[in-house]
Amino acid sequence: GLARQLDRPIVLVGMMGVGKSSVGKRLAGLLGCAFVDADEEIEHSAQMTIPEIFEDFGEDYFRDGERRVIARLISESTEEPGCNIVIATGGGAFCNPETRALILDKAITVWLDSEIDTLVERTARKDNRPLLKEGDPREILTRLRNERAPLYAQAPIHVVSGSGPHVQTINKVLQGIS
Ligand code: S3P
């Protein structure tokens, strides 16, 4: 049941715009866990925004910081018993082999996936994703989703997030982890 598996952090992976942060926040609320957004944590420790990190230091540097931040969040949370954290990762985090291996080893990993239309609509609400500035967002999201799907599919739990309210997605995640 639920209690048996919640001895590990829950890590949400999947494309930009799928709703990892919104779903994660509410899921943590329901489970009585803390919630951490890895992107926000990176911005906090670098004292820079993600677009600034990409601009000044490049994507490889960002990926390295991302790996370190996720490793720290996971190790802090596993020091104490019980489910004490839900972590939302940036869309590319799980594509880094080291970050992926760490997450798969230490966490309950949930892949959230949506149709391209939903990803396009949700990412258009914010102007904070450097990878979507390199061309047409729909084309970029389609390409990245195709490239990344086989990696995301290594997560043991798959949840399809529709275009509707997140409550449905949260219920599916709860079923998945129980
Ligand atoms: C990225 C996703 C972003 C952020 C960065 C790169 C990606 O996070 O980490 O812009 O490679 O998919 P979200 O998935 O929270 O948008």
TrEMBL record:
Q: Kinase: present as a keyword of the record?
A: yes
Q: Which reaction does it catalyse?
A: shikimate + ATP = 3-phosphoshikimate + ADP + H(+)
Tagged with keyword Amino-acid biosynthesis: yes
Q: Which cofactor does it need?
A: Mg(2+)
Pathway given in the UniProt record: Metabolic intermediate biosynthesis; chorismate biosynthesis; chorismate from D-erythrose 4-phosphate and phosphoenolpyruvate: step 5/7
GO MF entry, a single one: kinase activity
Locate the transmembrane regions by residue number: none
Query: For this protein, what is the EC number?
Result: 2.7.1.71
Record Pfam families:
SKI
Q: What class of enzyme is it?
A: transferase
Where in or outside the cell? Cytoplasm
Q: How is the cofactor bound?
A: Binds 1 Mg(2+) ion per subunit.
Q: Please tell me where ATP binds in this chain.
A: 17-22, 129
Top-level lineage group: Bacteria
Which controlled-vocabulary keywords does the entry list?
A: Amino-acid biosynthesis, Aromatic amino acid biosynthesis, ATP-binding, Cytoplasm, Kinase, Magnesium, Metal-binding, Nucleotide-binding, Transferase
Q: Where does substrate bind?
A: 39, 63, 91, 148
Residue positions annotated to bind Mg(2+) are 21
**Sequence similarity:** Belongs to the shikimate kinase family.
Q: What does this protein do?
A: Catalyzes the specific phosphorylation of the 3-hydroxyl group of shikimic acid using ATP as a cosubstrate.
NCBIfam families, per database record: PRK13946.1
Assembly and interaction partners: Monomer.
User: What is this protein's record name?
Assistant: Shikimate kinase
Underlying gene: aroK
